[in-house]
Amino acid sequence: MPSQAQILPGTLDLLILKAVSLGPLHGYGVLLRIEQISQGALLVEQGALYPALFRLVRQGLLKASWGTSDNNRRAKFYELTPAGRKRLRQQADGWNRLAAAIASALNTQPEEI
Amino acid sequence: MSLLSSLRSLVTALVNRGRIENDTDEELRAHVQNRADDLEHSGLTRAEAERRARIEFGGHEKFREECRETGGGNLVQVLIQDSRYALRILRRTPLVTAVAVLSLALGIGANTAIFGLIDTVMLRLLPVAEPGELVQILRNDPSRAGPAVSSFTNPLWEQLRDQQDVFFDTFSWSAWQFNLAQGGAVHDVNGIYASGDFFNTLGVRPAAGRLFSGSDDQRGCPPTAVLSFGFWQEHFGGEQSAIGSTLPLNNHIFQIIGVSASGFYGVDVGSKFDVAVPVCAAGVFDGKASRLEQRSWWWLNIMGRIKPGLSQEQLEARLTVLSPQVFSAAVPEDWDLDGQQRFRRRTLVAVPAASGTSSMRKQFSQPLYILMAVVGLVLLIACANIASLMLARAAARQKEFAVRKALGASRWRLIRQLLTECLLLSTAGALLGILFARWGTRLLVRYISTANHKIFLDLSLDWRILSFTTAVAVLTGLLFGLLPAFRSTRVSLTSAMKGGSLAEGSERRGRLRPGKWIVASQVALSLLLLVTSGLFLHSFFKLATLDLGFDRRDVLLVNANLKSAEIPPASQNAVFDDIESRLGAIPGVVAVGRSVRTPVSNFEWNQRIQVDAPDAPHGEDALVYFNFISAGYFPALRTPLLEGRNFNRGDTVSSAPVVIVNQTFAHKFFPRSPALGQSIRTNDSPAKKAPAMQIVGVVRDSKYESLREETYSQAFFPASQIPEAADSENFELRAERSPSALIPSVQDAVRQVNKGISLDFHSLAAQVGDSLVQDRLLATLSTFFGGLALLLAMIGLYGALGYLVTMRRAEFGVRMALGARPASILSLVMKDVAVVLGSGVTAGAFTSLLTVGFLQKMLFGLTARDPLTMVAAIGLLSAAGFLAGYLPARRAMRVDPMAALRYE
Predict the structure, then answer these.
(1) How far is B481 from chain A (nearest CA, A)?
(2) For chain B, what is the total number of helices (H) and then of strands (E)?
(3) Helices then strands (H, E): number in chain A?
């Protein structure tokens, strides 16, 4: 198991949006999906998740509806709204550009200057 | 997030608050269950798995709170929470809350009422189409100083109407009283003469029938009338059948053609019209010598609607060009040549008239502004009271604040809580205040109405009044809330939690605490108000007890108008004589006199007088005020004859003309020789030489039209020698007891002479009183508010000292235990009272001396810095202050040392 990293501030929303974009999920499912798609590298604090979900719903990026989970429990399922999908695309682009820029900066060799 | 969605989430958050919290709960529970399922799969027992899951998740409460914080509607929820708590706090001390709300309601109500009057009389626009385009046209006389005048003759109006090209439209009007009764007691309604374009130009629509048009207003027009909406409702029950029916006005039958829209009362703010007749209808009333032809009968007012796009400069330039044409075409031919020259040089000017015209505006603007300042000060004093109340209450709540702070409330949150309480108080005060104001304005309007001029104002609330009240409410709330809020939340946790020794901690003796400063400034403001009210009261008292030169008590004034009885001019004098002798015979009538005008009335008759003496007054100085009277006039009014004789039966049309003058006349025209026996003449008119009149008597000076006037030179002529018979004359009846009880017998007596004679009754005392309406208003209201201010200041002083005494109970206990005598405790507290009163009175006295100067114009017979008034105000305030301070001081004296120490 790779060592786990704390999530950078501001990236939790992006990760939630990504997780939910792969299919409707309930809160606990979001947690598991983030762990899964980051190959266990990113750890979301359980309690921080819900205020974030609540905030995204309020911003109209997610919508929530009650349904039944695989183990027959009543659960609240979250899915992306069109606005959420758009936001995910923008933020992912932004993040990728930033990551690429930082990576290229960090990989710079003395002779390349 | 868009505004709409944030609003939506706010609404859902508020409406479904309970449901959302349950939702969150259930979701968090489901999460823990899911986690427990996974843990169970990994081999733990169910119970152990659930326990572990719960521990991992942490406290529900914290997340719930975090979810709630991110949710919408948070601010509103906190506000509701604050208000609920504030309500609970205010309810806990119902008496204090009631006093606070009541004093605020009085203060805010008084401010709203006075502002409402200022708004209605001075600021509000006329309720007509595009009032901003309206201007009133005035005439300016370059040869005479003074403001432009608003009255015009009909020939001038016709010239202007037909020649002008600057206005979209013009109209003229004139307010007049019309008598509805046909003989007997007069039943006057408010009429206006309105030119044909009056209603169209203003954009007023008919509520029924039709309004005047140009064709209704032409010389020789049939008598037609338009009713106001209110008059139509009152007199015709709003029936459609009123259109086409008739109405007697001054004994002429007018046909009603329509009703004007509701909400339109005319263009004169302060009065309303009941009936409008076309300008040409003056011909119906006047007969041959109609004012329509008169070139020096100034009775019409003119307004116009400016053509769009015309600037003020262009308008003025056009009017200047237009003026000579208009004035030249309407020169009064009977004026002397010099007067005619000056007439031609007069010019037209235009002033904005979006808020109409008003004689009331001139009369009441200054009193209203003064009253606005007075009620503003009263509100300030009330605010100071509530501020010190809040300070005391906040001090008593130090422990509560400390606990709330310890539990994590921010200082800002505490301040917000206290301010919410204050705003709640001021809102309650404002709501109640609006009710007070509605009632108070009506009372005020009735109070300033007089028998001759019923004030009518459209008193509906408008946005201006409501926003004024809202602003006042918020400002007062902040004013009395901010200081206590900031001071009392600066609480040190440890000292507050330890409790008890708070008072000593913050009290440093020898220095005025903020509470005392507040009371001292209240005292200062109250003194200012007391001085103001004292000045007005003093001035009014001087006016009311002024020696008028006649005795105003128990005199009934009867105006008899022969016009409706159709008595030929030649026999009018005989009819008046007949009435006079019959009235004299009525039981209860001590004396009766007769005159063309009554004292202190608006009717003014003056002319220049020539005497044959060196350096005799001339020009404006030679102006003398006239009256025609019977021999009974002076005895009935109790004006003593000083020299010579009264008129008698020997003074007839055919005998030599005689005159009685007053002292001022005698001194002015004959400073060195006795006036008796001298001859005087009126100025010659071009037509004929005026006859000489011999002075046969001198009477005491008396007031002519106003109590404030410098005594005029007056001349009285015998009614029997009147050059032109007057349609209407007045009788002065001195009654044994109540003047108004004579009215039925007067009506009977006059009916025996002729049933058609119209009668109008007034009492002389009321007529004199009506001329003092401004002074009475200022004296009464400023005294009322001065008294209120005094009361508020006393409550403030009483409260502040009571609080102080409670705080120092322990100290007094110790002093007494150590042997201090009650008297020394008393003097300790009274010293505080003296310091507060002394500093307040000193500051108030200085402020008064600096500010009362501008009241001078409104005062009569005393200077604004009248020492007597000042001393009386200081004396009253100090006495009241010491009384208010003595009560808590006595309580301090009675502190039981043991009880006080044990309490500590």
Answers:
(1) 36
(2) 29, 22
(3) 4, 5
User: What pLDDT is stored for residue B457 in this prediction?
Assistant: 86
* AA letter at B1: M
Contacts of A13 in chain B (CB under 8 A): none
Residue type, B150: S
In the DSSP assignment, the letter for residue B269 is T
Above pLDDT 90, what percent of chain B? 41
Tracing tokens 């914290």 back to the chain, one arrives at: B62
Contacts of B50 in chain A (CB under 8 A): none
Q: Which amino acid, residue B305?
A: R
Structure tokens at B161: 């109407």
The tokens for B377 are 């000060």
pLDDT of B598 over the 80 cut: yes
- Contact predicate B729/B629, CB 8 Å: no
B419-438 confidence digits (pLDDT tens): 888 999 999 999 999 999 99
- Tell me if B34 and A69 make a contact (CB, 8 A cut-off): yes
**Predicted local distance difference test score (pLDDT) of residue B501:** 44
Which of 41-80 (A) contact B at CB < 8 A? Answer: 46-47, 50-51, 54-55, 58-60, 69, 71, 73-76
Confidence of residue B410 (pLDDT cuts 50, 70, 90): confident
Tell if the CB–CB gap between B24 and A50 is shorter than 8 Å: yes
Considering CB atoms only, which of A29, A50, A58 is closest to B72? A58
Phi, psi of B74 (to 5 degrees): -65, -50
Which of these, B481, B539, B532, lies nearest to B373 by C-alpha position?
A: B532
Q: CA of B126: how far to CAs of B35, B131, B285, B456, in Å? A: 75, 6, 30, 14
- Taking the C-alpha atoms of residue B8 and residue B571, their distance in angstroms, rounded to an integer, is 88
Residue B357 has a CB neighbour count (10 Å cut-off) of: 20
**How far away is chain B from the Cα of A76, in angstroms, using its nearest Cα?**
6
Contact list, A46 vs chain B (CB under 8 Å): 31, 35, 56-58
Report whether B195 contacts B278 (CB < 8 A).
yes
Q: Which residue, among A31, A54, A55, A62, would best test binding to B if mutated, counting the most B CBs under 10 Å from its CB?
A: A54
Strands B134-140 and A25-26: unpaired
DSSP B120: I
Q: Which candidate, B351, B372, B350, places its Cα nearest to that of B119?
A: B372
DSSP B775-839: HHHHHHHHHHHHHHHHHHHHHHHHHHHHHHHHHTHHHHHHHHHTT--HHHHHHHHHHHHHHHHHH
8 Å CB contact of B71 and A58: yes
Under an 8 A CB cutoff, do B27 and A76 touch?
A: yes
Interchain pair B72, A69: CB under 8 A: no
Residue B837 to residue B173: CA distance in whole angstroms: 58
Number of C-beta neighbours around residue B774 at 10 A: 15
For residue B721, give the amino acid letter. Answer: Q
Helices of type H across B278-357: 282-286, 312-328, 337-344
pLDDT in tens, B778-815: 999 999 999 999 998 888 888 888 888 877 888 888 88
Helix orientation angle between A11-21 and A27-37, rounded to the nearest 10 degrees: 100
| Of B551, B549, B543, B542, the residue nearest B712 (C-alpha) | B549
Q: How crowded is residue B468: how many other Cβ atoms within 10 Å of its Cβ?
A: 18
Q: Tokens at residue A34, please? A: 């983030």
Specify the pTM.
0.76
CB within 8 Å: B5 and A60: yes
Q: Are the beta carbons of B459 and B441 closer than 8 angstroms?
A: yes
Tell me what pLDDT residue B507 has. Answer: 42
Let me know how long chain B is: 904
In this complex, which of A46, A47, A59 lies closest to B1 when CB atoms are compared? A59
